[in-house]
Amino acid sequence: MNDVLKAKDFQTDQEVRWCPGCGDYSILKQVHTVLPQIGLKREDIVVISGIGCSSRFPYYTNTFGMHSIHGRATAIASGLKATRPELSVWIVTGDGDGLSIGGNHLIHLLRRNFNVQILLFNNEIYGLTKGQYSPTSPLGKVAKSTPMGSIDHPFNPAALALGADATFVARSMDRDPAHLQQMLLRSHQHVGAAFLEIYQNCNIFNDGAFEVFTDKGSKLTAGMYVQDGQPLVFGENNEYGIRLDGFQPMAVQLGEEYSKDDLWIHDEKNIFKAQILTRIFDEQSMEGHLPRPFGVFYAAERATYEDMLNAQVEQAIASRGVGNLDLLLRGSETWEIEA
Amino acid sequence: MEIKPIDHVVIKFAGDSGDGMQLTGGQFTNNTALLGADLQTFPDFPAEIRAPAGTLAGVSGFQLHFGSHKIFTPGDNCDVLVAMNAAALKVNIKNLNPGAIIIVNTDGFDSKNLRLAHYETNPLDDHSLDHFQVIRIDVTKMTREALKDLTLSTKEKDRCKNMFVLGFLYYMYNRQLDSTLRFLEQKFHKMPEVLEANRISLNTGYSFADTTEVFTSRYTVEPASLAPGVYRSIVGNEAVAMALVAASRRSGLPLFLGSYPITPASDILHYLSKYKNFGVRTFQAEDEIAAISASIGAAFGGSLAVTTTSGPGMALKAEAMGLAVMLEIPLLICNIQRAGPSTGLPTKTEQADLLQALYGRNGECPMPVIAASTPSDAFHATLEAARIAVEHMTPVILLSDGYIANGAEPWRFPQEKDLPEIHTAFAPEQQEDTVFHPYERNEKLVRPWAIPGTKGLEHRIGGLEKQAVTGNISYDPDNHEHMVKMREARVEIIADYIPEQAIALGPEKGQVLLLGWGSTYGAMQGATQQLLSEGYAVAHAHLRYIKPFPRNLGQLMQQFDHVMVPEINNGQLVKVLRDKYMVPAVAFNKIKGVPITSRELVNAVIDLLANKK
Q: How confident is the model at residue A3 (pLDDT cuts 50, 70, 90)?
């Protein structure tokens, strides 16, 4: 039965209501492509979202789903996963939903390490409320509520997730289907909270925010795809690389002075290097900027919350026996009144 | 020495919040309960964990009313006051009966304590206490003296003062020390010297009372003529916690609690976290919103899901409650009320969240509201709230309050087999090619509980308005109106599945119906009994179901000339009654963070009848 599931089996009969040209269409397509590959039954998958354009996602995916309230998908997923650990739980959120109104629940879910996937669609703008700046909008962003430019310092979502002790942190984008599918698969394979930031173009309110990373002419120098165990290289022909000078990452040209052996070798399990890697977040307009990394920055094992919770329940039953309600109701001291 | 039987007595233990008065009161309560007397308690403590020593704000009190007949309240005024310092005397002196016994720790009346309590002269010397019976004991000195051979620090020795006082009272009321000795052994078995110090202090207090000549007689209270059976002592929060476990057992659903610590609800979280061997999963969330949201997630997954909080937490949970109403999933929201608004008086009691429970959400957002009336009733009310949540697929609000939560009374506890069963049925698997309609309803207007993992039931739900039957998003105007009315109707139909309202005490018709809800129960019973004995045609009815009201409530009220509604708020239930039934109900309100007394109600009813004549 499972091996015959196809992408179209995960489509629903609901009319998709995103704006034509929205990056969400691509993400939906990649998720529908990946879901049949993970070998789960449709009924064992739950997609939970908050509020925002991205949060319409559950209606378009033929699994169990909940389109909840603003910012709380992470908290709702926590309760579901705590009680139904066998389900595959996917959280779909955005930069406003996940990092602004729901920022608190996001960091707490990450530190607790529930085994869920968090897909954070980052378009650096509020779409559903029609164009206000978001917590990831760059400084100076002119938007509906910032006519003179935003004075809010933006979040770096990957660094934030790592700061909250996420056990899996990765970044991908809507316009690179192959990479996005790979990152979705990796997120699912990870046991623990997988935080996947997905750059997503809002062609209505923030068109081209990530163009530099997707445009043929610039994407190989502005972006850098990292792979475990491989040196950090970028450029049209991988002619550049990143080396670590102490704690300082530096871009170098490969050739006479430096070879691949001098470069930073990516190690997904190294928390210290992951912190430097996620901190590579230069504005692409900046002189001497470093390329924006994409890929899995950090992936480590840590016990999940639900496993530890259920282990405590089992331990309590093993040491005290299954609870006896009559003894509980009776308490420690009783007295009798005779007829 | 003569042993004098007395009918009932009210004792108040009062001291600094570090003096251990709550523990002392709790021990005396247990000891009293074991004798078979009926009782009610009222712990009254400051919000600060250790308020500045010796100050009026730092006084912690524990009031116990026990007797050989049915006891309804913790007592209006005290017959015995234990005052560990001057501040404790100052705070409580206005609530003493004439001729009351005051046991004072003279060490707590030095110049510093007198200054902190704003006494200009020492009340022990200025004859202001002449109409009371004052027993002076230097508890500090005597405790230190008794423990002089132990190596504990003076500070540690001083912590045993409360045991000296307890021993003294045990003698006074002709008690055995066993129950407290057992308690001490359990509590301090890892600290033998502390255990020994407490034992010595308890015994010294007892012996001192025996050898001193302050008493002419000792007192004894005969067992109350309660219904035959086996009893235990119960506090409201523990009753709620046990009822949740019972509901889990009777429904066959695993219990999940999402909660964030808040006074006075936190103890429910503490209790349940100890019940893991009942399969209970507790989740201390990062905030109130996460607590209810996690519970919604657990309910979606098929657990008996609960969140516990108090007023400020209710305010934060409001949006998520709306989601639960839209999703039509079972969820129990327990509000252990405290005095508000905002942070208000966190450790004081109030019933001012009723209108919030009924109306405090955006949109037309009805949900059942159930109220507990006493510590033992909290068990049955909680179990009933859980039954309604599960059997009617709806979030339910359970209202308790600080007075019920921390108060104790004897409880003839039930057995599991006597508890009602809670009927649960998850929607069954179906063929992949059959369309599943998540909002199709049965005769109770209840939709199926279709939990993830069930083949063929894949569906999407959320906070957006739903099309009837299919559950798909719908912006259709007629559908919205239909669904708003449907959500109201499915709460109202619950009235067909609950008992009719009964009269708790008094005639079926008469002059005045005292109609209340929540923790005013005891005071209303006491007042009604008093008024009946004085020949008034007065009855008491107490609501457990506030939304929906029992079907016969309107008719029941019509049998009386007047309806009086006592509440610890500014008049909330009375508004709802007037709105729904157009009755000229009279409000009686007290909003002081303390319970209404029977005496106040008796006077109010007599005044009402006098003025209406």
A: low
**Are A335 and B35 an interchain contact pair (Cβ–Cβ within 8 Å)?**
yes
How do residues B420-437 score in pLDDT, each as one tens digit? 999 999 999 999 788 999
Same domain, A88 and A129: yes
Q: Which residue ranges in chain B fall short of pLDDT 50?
A: none
Residues of chain B neighbouring A319 (CB-CB closer than 8 A): 277
Are A103 and A237 part of one and the same domain? no
Summarised one tens digit per residue, pLDDT across range A154-195 is: 999 999 999 999 999 999 999 999 999 999 999 999 999 999
Identify the pLDDT of residue A311.
98
Q: How many of the other CB atoms lie within 10 Å of CB of A305? A: 22
Nearest to B323 among A68, A313, A321 (CB): A68
Whether residue A2 is predicted with pLDDT greater than 70 in this model: the reply is no
Ordered domains of chain B (ranges, CATH): 2-221 (3.40.920.10), 233-418 (3.40.50.970), 510-612 (3.40.50.920)
Q: Do A329 and B414 touch (CB under 8 A)?
A: yes
Tell me: do A46 and A72 sit in the same domain: yes
Q: Minimal Cα–Cα distance from B595 to chain A, Å?
A: 27
**Complex-level ipTM beyond the 0.90 threshold:** yes
Contact list in A for residue B416 (CB cut-off 8 A) is 325-326, 329
Do residues A195 and A161 lie in contact, with contact meaning Cβ atoms separated by under 8 Å? yes
Q: Which residues of B touch A114 (CB under 8 A)?
A: none
- Summarised one tens digit per residue, pLDDT across range B377-391 is 999 999 999 999 999
Q: Tell me what pLDDT residue B225 has.
A: 82
* Cα separation, B424 vs B250, whole angstroms: 9
Structural contact between residues A304 and A115, judged by C-beta atoms closer than 8 angstroms = yes
Q: Determine the Cα–Cα distance for residues B232 and A62; give it in Å rounded to an integer.
A: 53
Element (H, E) at A250: strand A248-253
Give the pair of three-digit tokens for residue A311: 């282990």
Q: How far apart are CA B74 and CA B409, in angstroms?
A: 10
Q: Looking at residue A1, what is its pLDDT?
A: 45
Residue of B nearest to A325 (CA): B416
Nearest-CA distance B463 → chain A (Å): 6
Strand pairing partners for B554?
Answer: none
Measured distance CA(B77)–CA(B591) in Å, rounded? 18
Nearest to B300 by CA among A267, A80, A226, A73: A80
The answer to whether the bond into B548 is cis (omega within 30° of 0) is yes
